[in-house]
Amino acid sequence: MSLRSQSVSAYAHVTSRHTTNEEPTLPTTVMRAARVLIADDDESLREMLSEFLKLEGYEVTLVDSAESLLSSVGWAGTSDAPDIRKSYDVIVTDVRMPGASGLDLVQTLRRGGHEGPIVVMTAFPDESVQDRASELEAFLIAKPFSLETMCFALRALSLPSWAPIPPEPARLRSRRDSEPHTVSLKNRFEPW
What we know:
The chain is of the alpha/beta class and 192 residues long.
């Protein structure tokens, strides 16, 4: 059965159960765009990655240095590191940037307790860079790379462009469950 016929079949099933003038509704599954934070001093590469990942459904934030990345996530340089995963699902960084290198950035984040996925890009993937990225548990991509390679890396890190929002605390869940949440199917299925 094709996707179109499944959609039409599901729509027909839902609408056939409603005999009133109300719009048919389904329970919602809350989804959000996966959030990517990119640090690279090369503005053209940053912009190109941003545009491509946005087309793929990701939410993208750009910074031009390791220092900018740390300040954008509220890092104060103390042992009380912020939970970056609340703001971003993955960090993508270049290795060679003015100031702190991308690998120094990854080391700072890991020492501060950040366990989230990190992708490191480099035009100089020598053995020392590969070893250090591996020690820091970062996914390494050698430049030049295709844009599809970046998408592959994000998917390999279990980061599809749309992800369910993580479970919420029980106190919020109980309040949410007491109120009906629905989504309208009106104008949802258009003929091909």
